[in-house]
DNA sequence: AATTGATCCAACCGCCTGTAT
DNA sequence: GATACAGGCGGTTGGATCAAT
């Protein structure tokens, strides 16, 4: 399939032979078979030798982002979201570096997640996604909510006790749904207690020291944070973050909530834009719940109630 | 049922870095 | 050291899909 764009883009005669756009099943099969025989690498050579009318880059991208067997499909779990938030706060847009710590996730996927979900929230709040304020907001509200969600997921697992089949994650692509059914959920987590402790630790500190809890490392302190022992060391990992995330294919912690519906929602009924407006005096006149529905999407479901917003506002005032 | 707008994500592009010659 | 090439990375685009009207 040679797209009409080729001519418009001014590709050379040789390039005109190249295919662009979505990959076909035949192309995928060809690439998979070639790599099975010859291995990865030498992508330009691969592109020529395999008979694929694609650039080496295109072949590499297709393999790494889609065809490679260990690529994980489906929604990001709360654990993965939490890790992305934490690592991004440390490394910024180093997507490939972040992806190295999320087994089966590609830099492209993480990048898309950040742009479509996280930056969307920043836009709604009219805060620069790279600003300290937004980072604080993430750390103070979003991350604890994800921790809470993880705890709820593990609790749900306990009660469910694997008697019912796992539900399908929302927004699964058609390709993903074509994959074999997932294995049954693992037994209840040994780490859930740790997570609970982390949340309790956070709540305790918030209550005893409400003006300062935003910057407290206790949220992710190593002794209160989940410490499932399978996770390998992450060399230059932030001291305040999630230690010991797993790089193995089978990670009971990650998988535990992978099959939990992503449709649980936090109580956002009492959330309104007047509450939002306390955050740094942002203009909210053109930012309505009805417009954005952001309180109900799967990202916003995990964040922010009025109390926390007031706390956040106090903190901001104090810092000014 | 049709239309429109929003969202998601696969794929592409250009730039940068590392390596071989 | 200069050049060419391959591979990797982050930013962006555009088509497909979903949701709202």
From TrEMBL:
GO terms for molecular function: DNA-binding transcription factor activity; sequence-specific DNA binding. It holds the Pfam family Myb_DNA-binding. InterPro entries: EOBI/EOBII-like_plant, Homeodomain-like_sf, Myb_dom, SANT/Myb. SUPFAM superfamilies: Homeodomain-like. Residues 152-193 are annotated as: Disordered. Residues 15-67, 68-118 form the Myb-like domain. SMART domains: SANT (SM00717). GO terms for cellular component: nucleus. It is found in: Nucleus. Residues 15-67, 68-122 form the HTH myb-type domain. Residues 179-189 have a biased composition (Pro residues). Keywords: DNA-binding, Nucleus, Repeat, Transcription, Transcription regulation. Residues 153-177 have a biased composition (Polar residues). It comes from the Eukaryota. The keyword Transcription applies. This is Transcription factor MYB108-like. The lineage of its organism: Eukaryota, Viridiplantae, Streptophyta, Embryophyta, Tracheophyta.
